């Protein structure tokens, strides 16, 4: 399976500001001084290989939208945050006029996970089939509601694709488009659900908008069981641990530290920090990643856990 991140930001999309870009360019120009970067190729190689990620690139700003390819003609995607805009363009370009089947899995319907759907162009194309899966009773209501006047100019009823809503029983494993899908209830305002996807002996977990309190051993064991042996865990690491246990306790999100601890207990292979706090710039996200990697090194058992910070455009092959 290939996992592709279209939106990795939590709560609200953000963008680099002109100040961010100016300050970054100034730092790069100083580093590039006397380097004879007299061609685009040389300059690209310099940016690619010699600059820190937070200087030469950006984690990006679209809200939650994560696609995975499962070796079939169907599309699979978790959440419809603003990353659904570029994801929709990708679907249309790849299909080049052929009808598409898109399976959407909704963790919950908070707006940052839903706001991209009215801009998901495949939903406007007759012949496309869009299957929206979720565990919440209000799933369909939420999709229709956000396109009602006066909030959006095009009502849901005018979408031309065939759109189905499919309720998933969270106590069961489902077979969808050749993929085994298991939902898992999570602690979050109004409830959220993680999903575990399995195919051809590979597995990954999408677990966002979930607050984990490690002092509840029964609940910890339940989450660890859900993450058990996963090749990849995409994890809500919105805060640093200090924030998560103090000012932002009970806000419904987790930290980089808790992500490392749960994945180590579950013997997962890779952890992708996700749902980045919109107030954090690239330097702050890079620091959260560095801290998580340092903790993993210090507490490593028999099996190493690879830790990355998800960014818009990241692809991970399982
Ligand atoms: Zn969210
Ligand atoms: Zn939420």
Describe this structure in words.
The strands form two sheets. This protein has a seven-stranded mixed beta sheet. A seven-stranded mixed beta sheet has the order 7-8-9-10-11-12-13. The chain has two domains: 2-14 and 58-311, Metallo-beta-lactamase, Chain A; 18-56, no CATH class. Helix 8 packs parallel to helix 9 (282-298). The termini are close together. 42% of the residues are buried. It has 318 residues and is α/β, with parallel strands linked by helices. Strand 10, helix 6 and strand 11 form a beta-alpha-beta unit. It is globular. The model has no long low-confidence stretch (mean pLDDT 94). The protein has nine helices and 14 strands. The protein has helices at 18-31, 40-50, 53-56, 84-95, 139-145, 217-227, 241-245, 256-266, 282-298, and strands at 2-7, 65-69, 75-78, 101-105, 129-134, 162-167, 174-176, 179-186, 192-199, 202-207, 232-236, 270-274, 306-309, 315-317. One zinc ion (ZN) is lined by residues 108, 110, 188, 209.
Secondary structure elements and their pairing?
Elements: E1 2-7, H1 18-31, H2 40-50, H3 53-56, E2 65-69, E3 75-78, H4 84-95, E4 101-105, E5 129-134, H5 139-145, E6 162-167, E7 174-176, E8 179-186, E9 192-199, E10 202-207, H6 217-227, E11 232-236, H7 241-245, H8 256-266, E12 270-274, H9 282-298, E13 306-309, E14 315-317
């Amino acid at each position: 399976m290939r996992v592709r991140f279209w939106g990795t930001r939590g709560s609200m999309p953000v963008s680099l500001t002109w100040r961010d870009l100016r300050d970054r360019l100034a730092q790069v120009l100083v580093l590039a001084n006397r380097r004879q970067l007299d061609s685009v190729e040389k300059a690209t190689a310099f940016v690619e290989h010699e600059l820190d990620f937070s200087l030469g690139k950006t984690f990006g700003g679209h809200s939650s939208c994560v696609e995975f390819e499962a070796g079939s003609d169907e599309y699979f995607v978790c959440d419809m945050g603003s990353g659904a805009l570029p994801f929709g363009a990708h679907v249309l370009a790849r299909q080049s006029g052929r009808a598409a089947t898109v399976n959407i899995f909704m963790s919950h319907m908070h707006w940052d996970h839903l706001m991209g759907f009215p801009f998901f162009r495949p939903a406007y194309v007759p012949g496309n089939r869009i299957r929206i899966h979720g565990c919440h009773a209000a799933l369909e209501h939420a999709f229709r509601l956000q396109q009602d006047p006066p909030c959006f100019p095009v009502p849901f009823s005018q979408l031309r694709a065939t759109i189905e809503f499919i309720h998933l029983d969270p106590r069961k494993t489902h077979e969808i488009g050749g993929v085994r899908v298991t939902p898992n209830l999570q602690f979050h305002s109004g409830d959220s659900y993680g999903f575990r996807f399995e195919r051809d002996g590979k597995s990954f977990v999408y677990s966002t908008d979930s607050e984990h309190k490690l002092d509840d051993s029964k609940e910890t064991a339940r989450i660890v069981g859900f993450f058990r042996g996963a090749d990849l865990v995409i994890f809500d690491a919105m805060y640093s641990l200090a924030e998560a246990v103090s000012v932002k306790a009970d806000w419904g999100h987790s930290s980089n530290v808790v992500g490392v601890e749960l994945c180590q207990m579950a013997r997962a292979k890779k952890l992708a920090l996700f749902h980045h706090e919109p107030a954090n710039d690239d330097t702050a996200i890079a620091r959260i990643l560095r801290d998580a990697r340092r903790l993993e090194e210090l507490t490593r058992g028999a099996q190493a856990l690879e830790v990355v910070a998800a960014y818009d455009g990241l692809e991970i092959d399982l």
